[in-house]
Design a protein that fits this description.
This protein is an alpha/beta fold. Helix content is about 30%, strand content about 20%.
Length: about 525
């Protein structure tokens, strides 16, 4: 915590609203510092965006499937003296090699390795030695951007944009980012370093996580590409949902109180100071401070509306279901994560990021296909004498501000269209054998209180980034702290874990140590 930043004094009794990763991270850091902490969760289970759906005979992650920087999970657990091996069963992670398998419309493929030698060899195979040398230069640049911004801009709270130049160190890091071209455009900076258009896609598609097309995204978001392609992508035994379950178990074991099926509908105040969270049953949960982790429309419904409109990120349609392994064994792509790129890349981004009322569904979809059983055989299951595996397919789409489509009518036909696209791209048998048990659309996300029906919160435009993003404290609401993807540092599993710790620091919790990339306890 930087000295001089605003904190909430005398917050011994804290209520945290929401048991997603941000709320659980904050709660662990608070209870580890001796605070009396109660977590209230609207749903019947924990996890938020890393929850699960149940299908006949299986479970499947219903949110984030890509895990980077798992040491941030270890850091939250360590706040209460726990680690990956102190729970039963232990939390086990596996470094995926490759992290992704990329398929392109011209029939070529690329495995994306975090190991530099393996990745250079793969780039050489697809693009030649000169491009491999350029890739290694790009990799160094990605790392430099990440190193320059992590401490000062990602792992940081802000009271004002002036915090960017509040110290000699801050000025030095800002100057370094300027020198690296990090305030230019991501697509342009990557394009200056590598030439092959297929390879450029691999190192810029992460801009979608930030809610912006690569051609418009700030190059500071090269940090996401660095996490994705250099620091490594991990699989979790039992699914991503297991992360939230373990964090919740450690929180309760350390003395915290967790109440599910408890929706907060209002707050009590004494003057301007919040004194209690009131649930839908009328119970009052007294507190000295309140941490709000839901999406901003829910936050604003509790605190009072704000005039400033947030520009939401694009949304997604996600098909969740299962398929017989006899079918999937015939597919050319046999990886945990597959990115199946359409041919018309720039047009796709233009369609899904168009201004209000002008968005369109992707005319040439680029899709993320996730098959968790390929790295965790425990997720295989038997149905009617045949082995099956869980399968999810994510298709980016415009949010409801960009394209106010009737998803109640559209979800079924669009799901069938996406499956047909995959059949034509070589996923033989998927049209007949993929049993889709759940379809999430922008309407799903809107029903859960997410702005414009987007699970990716506010887009990381310049005016919604860093010190310009919704701050985690607001002087108009003493005793209230925000965490989650709508506030700093932003969207993504690592960032919401950081947001939870930053919220705890706003409540006066001293940072025990500095969590950075590496191999935290229990990572294997």
């Amino acid at each position: 915590m930087r000295s001089g930043l605003r904190t909430v004094p005398d917050a011994q009794r804290v209520v945290v609203v929401g048991a997603g990763l941000a709320g659980l991270s904050c709660a662990l850091h608070l209870v580890g510092a001796g605070r009396d902490v109660t977590v209230l969760e609207r749903e019947s289970s924990v996890g938020g965006r890393v929850g699960a759906y149940r299908g006949p005979g299986y479970e499947i992650d219903n949110g984030a499937t890509v895990l980077t920087m798992p040491e941030l999970i270890a850091d939250a657990l360590a706040a209460v003296g726990a680690d990956f091996s102190s729970v039963e069963p232990p939390l086990r992670t596996t470094l995926l090699s490759p992290a992704y398998h990329a398929r392109f419309a011209d029939g070529t493929t690329l495995d994306v390795f975090s190991d530099p030698d393996a990745m250079a060899a793969e780039v050489t195979r697809m693009c030649g030695r000169d491009e491999a040398r350029r890739y290694l230069r790009l990799r160094r640049w990605l790392a430099e951007v990440f190193d320059a911004e992590f401490d000062r801009f990602m792992d940081a709270s802000f009271d004002s944009p002036l915090d960017l130049v509040s110290s000699r160190g801050a000025v030095a890091d800002l100057t370094r980012l300027v020198r690296l071209g990090a305030f230019g455009r991501l697509g342009g900076q990557v394009g200056r370093r590598i030439r092959d258009p297929r390879l450029r896609r691999v190192f810029t598609f992460q801009a979608l996580y930030a809610g912006v097309a690569p051609s418009r995204a700030l190059a500071v978001y090269a940090a996401i590409a660095h996490m994705d392609t250099s620091l490594g992508v991990y699989a979790v035994e039992g699914g991503m949902r297991r992360v939230a379950q373990v964090m919740a178990e450690a929180f309760v074991a350390a003395g915290g109180t967790l109440r599910t099926d408890t929706e907060v509908v209002s707050v009590d105040r004494a003057g301007r100071r919040v004194t209690a969270a009131v649930d839908s049953g009328g119970a009052r949960h007294r507190c000295d401070a309140l941490v709000l982790t839901p999406d901003l429309p829910v936050v604003d419904a509790l605190l009072g509306p704000r005039r400033r409109r947030v520009v939401a990120s694009p949304s997604a349609v996600v098909l969740h279901g299962s398929v017989p392994t006899a079918t999937t064994r015939t597919w050319a792509a046999q990886r945990h994560h597959v990115i199946d790129f359409g041919e018309h890349w720039e047009e796709t981004f233009a369609e899904i990021t168009a201004p209000r009322g002008r968005g369109r569904l992707m005319s040439d979809p680029s899709l993320l296909i996730t098959r968790p059983a390929l790295s965790d055989s425990g997720q295989l299951f038997d149905r009617e004498g045949a082995e099956h595996e869980p399968l999810s397919v994510l298709a980016p789409c415009p949010n409801l501000d960009s394209a106010p489509l009737d998803w109640d009518a559209l979800s079924g036909p669009y799901a069938r269209e996406l499956v047909t696209v995959l059949e034509h791209r070589g996923y033989s048998g998927i049209s007949d054998e993929f049993r889709v048990d759940h379809v999430d659309t922008p309407a799903t996300w809107r029903s859960r209180g997410m702005s414009a029906g987007s699970p990716f919160a506010g887009a990381h435009l310049f005016r919604q980034t860093g010190p310009f993003r919704r701050r985690n404290v607001d002087p108009r609401h003493p005793g209230v702290v925000l965490a989650g993807s709508g506030t700093v540092p932003g969207v993504g599993v690592p960032t919401v874990l950081l947001s939870g710790r930053l919220a705890a620091e706003r409540l006066g919790v001293e940072r025990r140590r500095h969590a950075r990339r590496g191999t935290g306890p229990g990572l294997h």
